[in-house]
Amino acid sequence: MSVTEQTADKMKSEVFGEISLKIEDLCVDFLLSGGDLHAIYHLDFELPAHKMTGLVGESGSGKTTLTSAILRSVSTPGEITQGKIWFENEDVVKLSNDKLRKYRWRDVAMVFQAAQNSLNPSMTIREQFAETILAHRKNAGNKEMEEISKRLLKQVKLEPERILRSYPHELSGGMKQRVMIAFAQLLDPPILLLDEPTTALDVITQDYIFTLIRQMHDRTENTMLLSTHDIAIVARVCDYMAVMYGGRIVEMGDIFTMFEKPVHPYTQMLIKAAPSLVGELKERVAIPGSAPDLMKTHKGCIFADRCPYCEERCRTEEPEPELIGKEHLAACHRADFAGKEGQ
Ligand SMILES: Nc1ncnc2c1ncn2[C@@H]1O[C@H](COP(=O)(O)OP(=O)(O)O)[C@@H](O)[C@H]1O
Ligand SMILES: [Mg+2]
Fold it and tell me: Nearest C-alpha to atom 24 of ligand 1 is from which residue?
């Protein structure tokens, strides 16, 4: 996974063509009293430009930590202990505070889980939009602010006049989350990170919001990374899918290949366990075993204990991501075998 060409603001990868971010050998540890928890472990990742990439994996697999690391906002006691995050020829890990402030929101915006709670309860939505625009563009005029806010609220199918004069408590959870999605677009960032953006909402509202997010993407063609534990959503709205397990990305590829020909046994199990992808309830197969202990150093493959195809080598050698086919990477010693069996 080497960068073959790097111009002023375009990075190209051998696997995914134009990419917006390139992560190299990233480690994020939570420094706990009992020891270090390796939440992200020597992770390499390329984010395809102008596409929607879904980041999936069980709870605790590292989705939030990875997304926060991209924004350099891992919560304490978490720390980026190693690695690089390339964005437009700069390593985000090393950005000065001044540059970091511009990078957040202007270059990369994030909508996080329960983002709705981060709205200020004592200010109207209009005041909050104005404050955010002014924080980044000191000379923005009132008329311009009003126009931008209204356009963005319309895009998430909210009635601008009513919303702008409301206080957060006057809006439903789904409305607030849509306000946050509009908010994230305020500075037209080339990259948008969405970490479980609908988790607190009911299923129908979730579905509706994902449709809006996809429409927004088609209009702006910005790069999106959408993390969710719901693989069916990814199948419906994303172009690519990356699968996380124990702080690693174990498989990534274009959405068609990932669902038609997944080669990592964990991806295969995730697909089989997804309620809305498998028609008959009885065909659903829960993934046996429990999540790996991230305080431990794993010598071989981190999935070995739960893997039906595990052999001796899997216990001693950590598999590296390898090219399986066009735009398809997997870190599995048994990829050849599991890929054939799993279909
Ligand atoms: N603030 C924290 N303190 C300690 N451990 C944390 C903290 N945040 C996350 N972790 C640990 O890091 C790992 C990855 O968590 P997270 O990134 O939240 O996963 P996901 O978003 O996929 O559910 C988990 O083992 C989790 O327990
Ligand atoms: Mg999370």
Answer: 60
Decide: helix, strand or coil at residue 286.
coil
Cα distance between residue 198 and residue 211, in whole Å: 12
The count of structural domains within the chain is: 1
Q: How far, in Å, is the centroid of ligand 1 from the Cα of 340?
A: 33
Ligand 1 binding pocket includes 294 (Cβ within 6 Å): yes
pLDDT per position as a tens digit, 202-228 = 888 888 889 999 999 999 999 999 999
Residue with tokens 């202007």: 106
Query: Per the domain annotation, does 153 fall within a domain?
Result: no
Supply the pTM of this predicted model: 0.93
Determine how β-strand 90-91 pairs with β-strand 17-32.
unpaired
| 320: in domain | yes
Q: How many CB atoms lie within 10 A of CB 337?
A: 14
Does any ligand 1 atom lie closer than 6 A to the CB of residue 60? yes
| Domain at 78, CATH number | 3.40.50.300
Tokens 């500075």 sit on residue: 187
Ligand positioned closest to the Cα atom of 112: 2
Whether 47 and 21 have beta carbons less than 8 Å apart is answered as: yes
